[in-house]
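Risk register update: the risk that structure generation would not scale has been downgraded. Supporting records follow, first protein first.
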Amino acid sequence: MALRSCCRRLAAQVARLKHCVNDCTRNVSGSGLSLARIKPLHEPAAVFVRSWHLCVSEQRPSGAAGVSNWTLAWGVMAFSLFGSSDERTEEQKLEDELILLLKKAKYSMMIGELDAANGFLHKAVRLAHQMHNNDAIIYTYSLMANLAFVQGQLENAEKLFKAAMSFMLSGGTPQDDNAVIEMSLKLASIYATQNKNELAEHGFQFCTESLEAKIEKQKELPQESLSDEERKDTRLLLGLSLDARARYLAANHRFTGACRDYRHALQICQEEQGESHPQSLVLLSDLATVLDLQGKHDEALAHVKKAVELGHAAGHPDQHVLLGNMAGILMHKGEFEESSKLYQEALALARAAGDGEAVEQLQEGLKELASRRDGQTESKPEEQEHKD
């Protein structure tokens, strides 16, 4: 039993709160927020795409020191914002209040207080509407949509993503802007989860075709007119889109198309982020899983073995998942002894990491392995009896 796409789910569990905080930054990067005090909330534009799934740049405060540093930072900010309140205009005070609400919301997300974050965001969006500031509205809707997405409130997330996109497009943001495409990709993923297959496929097609056309256009531009960061971001977003579509196709047993997209996404990730990057290893493992499901066990084993070796050398945080996938493929090849060893090794690592989902799936793999062994043992006496 291979841990199908388990790497991705585990990575999402580890990074989902910090990821949703960073996501909104990338989603509104094309809108160019006009509020001077909202702009500092943005991380670099490449955070979301470069991280792909695992490498999130923001770090949650840990222990008393983290809380103390945060408290100090808030004290400095409060002093700078409100030190000369007598001279501040009403508009400036509203801006300050909006900034404060957004920062509180982001911090609440980071520490896992999602209900509190939701409350701050609702206050912020009302204030943004009151100020008639479309940039602030887009930014806040993006945060709200990502929060709903993380919480599994897919219908609400869909409405919020659509609202943010509507404000962006009406403000002149082009349809092939990376921020628009990223929101479209999340909508496609939502439709896939809801089994709205026609909408999902249309969404994935829009994302991949728009990005491929954009990349071709970028090749014709003078080198000085496009930074390496922009070029890289667009390519990585294409890789992300192909990866998402591959998972959708694999879930619907369309393995040929899934392999095609996985190979293309893997090529992009390796070229842009390196062969040992965590996402490259995830893609190698997922490609191996799909090949295994097609019965191409030898090719699958070659890919997952490479992922395990590179993961071991690089200290991959989910090495137990890679080992579990390799164990499953070996089991399907009939190499039960080696499969058992890897399952046990992976199980020990998963328990040490406190990864309950992986422990459960690895235990299921061991049960399947025992069943196959028993079936093989029972068939041998029958074969001998037939020969006699």
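Supporting record for the second protein:
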Amino acid sequence: MTSHHPQHTGHELSRTRSHEGDRATRDKGGHQTGHNQPPSPVDVQKALKGMDYPCSKAELLACARDQHADRKVLDTLQHIPDIEYKSPASVSKELGKLM
């Protein structure tokens, strides 16, 4: 008695795996930041390009507005302490405390 089971070549499985991989890659790269996530430190520093230090919180906000910063960046800068910032690193330090 001969069994007539179709032989699996492995292509069916690899096709399924390749589609799963494509889906995972697309999902991963969909959004840079979530809706409730703060902006990255890089985004904030880009918004503060050309800032002269030391400076105040108000000067940081003015610079970010002049650079047409994203709303998330401006909102985040609103929450840092109103102190004198001596360098970009001091701004990043305060941002880190918020996250």
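Helices lie at 11-28, 41-47, 57-66, 71-78, 88-98. On this basis the risk owner (M.S.) recommends closing the item.
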